[in-house]
Amino acid sequence: MLRRGTGRHKGEACCTEGRARLPGVTDARPCAILSGMTRLRSTAVGILAVAPVLVGTSTVVASPLAAQQVADSAFAPGLGPPAWTAGAGPRVALDEAHGNFHTLDGRYLTFGRVLASDGFRVGALREPFTAAALDTLDVLVIANALHASNATAGAWALPTPSAFTPEEIAAVRRWVEGGGALLLIADHMPFAGAAGDLAAVFGFELRNGFAQGPGQGGPGLLVFRRSDGSLTDHPVTRGATPALRVDSVASFTGAAFRAPAGAISLLTLPQKSVSLEPDTAWIFGDATPRTDVSGWSQGAVAEVGRGRVAVFGEAAMFSAQLAGPQRTPMGMNSPVAAHNPRLLVNLVRWFAGAAERE
């Protein structure tokens, strides 16, 4: 067991019938390739608002959605017997002190419920990262933290300063090296930029952009499969029982990163993948910088000292949301993401073994 202490941003509504798409983009499956012509993003209160996107030399704006992006409170995946009796498992805290886009009473409601159903003690951490605060935890989860200057969707533009102070970063590093477990989730720009300094102390290089697979007309759905080698065999994907085996994982528009030597990429981007890196989120044009991220990662794990770190470049994959006027499933509740809940449970169970090497 781990050391114990004393105690719409990304347009997550799926593609819907009749919505405009870039020329050459023909995939109209629900929650599939999201349009490069129009994107929806969430305001601070969760109302979906129009985000215009530059295509060539013109800006195209879609009709606004008049619905909220909300947690799917009814979603309850069947994952077999829990690892611990209720409230007896390791302590898991979701950071809510750094302008986080995902919280336990918001978009990560189901994230918390899935882990609680496995016996984990789940709560929020609403204070800066200090040795005293971290020593009360077994697992720290950071999902889409932001610096105050980027805290609203209207401010999702460069620069994207670190969401964490140097003192906080140093405290987290010491805590992990001493046996703590960190799950760092940093989505597309600006979230990757805000988490870059923290990721870097563990050797991860985050690209502050939008990951795009080969042949896609814009950032969108990526599916990693065991059958094609993009999903790596590992205890996190193997699971303790057949009911927890992971054969595919879906992500819903995120960022790419390069994992350090010694880390294991669980979700590996295919050849000809690129990171689109605009100066303002969701504004793309012919001159938008792009970086080749073939073979880079969108999910990786590493052992650091006596602790463990996992980095994922996409946050919706661990949520369960209903988006848009038709309340379209987005995240773990999506038909294309049936194994995502298994990944989440396996990952946090893997964290729980970090101190067994003592």
Q: What's the quick description here?
A:
The chain is α+β, with helices and mostly antiparallel strands and 358 residues long. The protein is built from 6 helices and 20 strands.
Task: Please name the defining characteristics of this protein.
three-stranded antiparallel beta sheet, seven-stranded mixed beta sheet, globular, 14% helix, 6 helices
What is this structure's SSE topology?
Elements (H helix, E strand, L loop, with lengths): L37 E5 L5 E8 L2 E3 L9 E2 L19 E5 L13 H9 L3 E5 L5 H4 L4 E5 L22 H12 L3 E5 L5 H10 L4 E2 L3 E3 L8 E5 L9 H4 L9 E5 L4 E2 L5 E5 L5 E3 L13 E3 L4 E8 L2 E6 L7 E4 L4 E4 L8 H12 L7
Parallel strand pairs: 5-6, 5-7, 7-8, 8-18
Antiparallel strand pairs: 1-2, 2-3, 4-19, 9-13, 10-15, 11-12, 14-17, 15-16, 17-18, 19-20
Give your account of this protein's structure.
This protein is α+β, with helices and mostly antiparallel strands and 358 residues long. Helices cover 14% and strands 25% of the residues. It has 6 helices and 20 strands. The protein has helices at 109-117, 131-134, 166-177, 191-200, 235-238, 340-351; strands at residues 38-42, 48-55, 58-60, 70-71, 91-95, 121-125, 139-143, 181-185, 205-206, 210-212, 221-225, 248-252, 257-258, 264-268, 274-276, 290-292, 297-304, 307-312, 320-323, 328-331. It has a 7-stranded mixed beta sheet with strand order 6-5-7-8-18-17-14, with helices on both faces. A 3-stranded antiparallel beta sheet has the order 1-2-3, with no helix packed on it. β7, α3 and β8 form a beta-alpha-beta unit. The protein is globular and about 55 Å long. The chain starts with 37 loop residues before the first strand and ends in a 7-residue tail after the last helix. Residues 1-8, 11-67 and 354-358 have low confidence and may be disordered.
